[in-house]
């Protein structure tokens, strides 16, 4: 089979770029002293396993990809400085609210506590911080389709309050056990609206 790749001359002046197939992995820089701490944290946090480990780098995965998270260090790397430009957070999606809350409880048994629990409208999200202070989001989609989510995000409610409202995971766990449906529980609830200053303070 012949592979066809257009020449530069065949392309328009500013063509639409071919999107990638998927996001493969994230690489985080850490200090030399914290490499093993970060490796152990992410192995526990994701329920994953290490596939490559040296004094200067660790790769791990939690699914069929050969590595999803890489941790690298060099002697010149310094600790993370809050309130600087750069990556805000990494988000991990779960298939159901029950799965999200199961992982929440399992992490608690390991001493990993969330910094914020927010129903944003599009997602129900639980935020954590890793040992370096990087923010991590674990989430479940609140709508069944991308089209429904996009419609909500373009609507008035999300424009007025994109952060959403706080929730207590234990409350959702009890309601799920009582037979209330995930769809109902994932609706933007009656919790206290999350203020921007509060969210930043908890996740910085």
Automatic annotation (TrEMBL):
- InterPro entries attached here? Glyas_Bleomycin-R_OHBP_Dase (IPR029068), Glyas_Fos-R_dOase_dom (IPR004360), VOC_core (IPR037523)
In this chain the VOC domain maps to 22-141
- Keyword Oxidoreductase (UniProt): yes
Checking Pfam families in the record gives: Glyoxalase (PF00903)
Which keywords does this chain's UniProt record carry? Dioxygenase, Oxidoreductase
Q: Which Gene3D superfamilies match?
A: 2,3-Dihydroxybiphenyl 1,2-Dioxygenase, domain 1
Q: Which GO terms describe its molecular function?
A: dioxygenase activity
Which protein are we looking at? Answer: Glyoxalase/Bleomycin resistance protein/Dihydroxybiphenyl dioxygenase
């Amino acid at each position: 089979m012949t592979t066809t790749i257009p020449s530069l001359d065949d392309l328009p002046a500013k063509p639409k770029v071919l999107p990638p197939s998927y996001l493969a992995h994230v690489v985080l820089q850490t200090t030399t002293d914290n490499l093993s701490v970060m490796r152990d944290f992410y192995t526990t946090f994701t329920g994953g396993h290490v596939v490559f480990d040296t004094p200067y780098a660790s790769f791990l995965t939690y699914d069929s990809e050969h590595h999803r998270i890489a941790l690298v260090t060099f002697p010149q790397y310094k600790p993370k400085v809050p309130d600087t430009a750069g990556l805000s957070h990494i988000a991990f999606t779960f298939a159901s609210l029950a799965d999200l809350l199961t992982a929440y409880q399992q992490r608690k048994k390991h001493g990993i506590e969330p910094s914020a629990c927010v129903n944003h409208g599009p997602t129900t999200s639980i935020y954590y911080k890793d040992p370096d202070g990087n923010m991590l989001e674990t989430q479940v989609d609140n709508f069944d389709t991308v089209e429904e989510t996009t419609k909500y995000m373009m609507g008035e409610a999300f424009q007025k309050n994109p952060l959403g409202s706080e929730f207590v995971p234990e409350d959702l766990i009890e309601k799920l056990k009582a037979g209330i449906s995930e769809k109902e529980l994932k609706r933007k609830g009656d919790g206290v609206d999350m203020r921007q200053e509060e969210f930043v303070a908890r996740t910085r």
